[in-house]
Amino acid sequence: MVAVNDEVGGGEVGGDRTGGDPFEGIEHSSDFAAVPDAFQRLWTPHRLVYIQDGQQPEESDCPFCLAPKMADEKALIVARGTHAYVLLNLFPYNSGHLLVCPYRHIATYDEATPEEIAEIGSLTQVAMRVLTEVSHCDGFNIGMNQGRVAGAGIAEHLHQHIVPRWALDSNFFPIIARTKAVPRLLGEVRREVADGWPKDEN
Predict the structure, then answer these.
(1) What are the pLDDT digits (tens) for 141-152?
(2) Active site residues
(3) Cα–Cα–Cα angle for 56, 59, 64, nearest 5°?
(4) What whole-number distance in Å separates Cα of residue 81 and Cα of residue 63?
(5) Across residues 97-121, what is the average pLDDT?
(6) Where is the active site (predicted)?
(7) 28 is in an annotated binding site
(8) Residue 177: what pLDDT?
(9) 28 near 14, Cβ under 8 Å?
């Protein structure tokens, strides 16, 4: 079931709902008792997978614990620090989508030591500089989803997202088609970011 507002881009959505409706099965806001507001909404029920039970790996299978034991190319690691490391997201929102993870298997930011917090912060700063240099991005989304209810895909191992953004890089494709167009291969991006990482920062 998908819900839409009455107007998207100024036009009626839903077609002829008296019969032969090509949008049959789509909820329409005019079908409910409510007073419309000024906001448009895109409903994304497929994201429920991030907050339902049974979606978390066992600690022995945690990808953020296993990655540092692998070769950098295999694990998509671009830099290793003393308390934390940086790797590419295997399922990126954009090319160059990085994750900063502590080596320790901790779930939330308040469990991190001062040393881990400091290194996560410094690695984030370096990552921003490197991505700006090698990919010429215009901005970033940076943040942590804490817990399954907040949308963390791997909720039991703390990780910070660094998503490079470019002007006009957003469209409806990921929501409507459940597909994200990522124009560059992971291995290529990993090499570029790793090569651009300051050697004295490792």
Answers:
(1) 999 998 888 877
(2) 159
(3) 85
(4) 18
(5) 96
(6) 159
(7) no
(8) 52
(9) yes
Q: How far apart are CA 47 and CA 39, in angstroms?
A: 21
| Angle value at C-alpha 74, between 137 and 143, nearest 5 degrees | 40
Q: What CATH number corresponds to the domain at position 177?
A: 3.30.428.10
73 and 140 belong to one structural domain: yes
**Residue 136, marked binder:** no
Mean pLDDT of 34-40: 69
Choose between 128 and 61: higher pLDDT: 128
> According to the model, what pLDDT value does residue 189 have?
86
114 and 184 co-located in one domain: yes
Range of the domain at 18: 2-43
Write down the H helix ranges in the chain.
63-66, 72-75, 114-135, 173-176, 186-196
Helix axes 114-135, 186-196, angle to 10 degrees: 110
Q: What is the CA radius of gyration of the chain?
A: 21
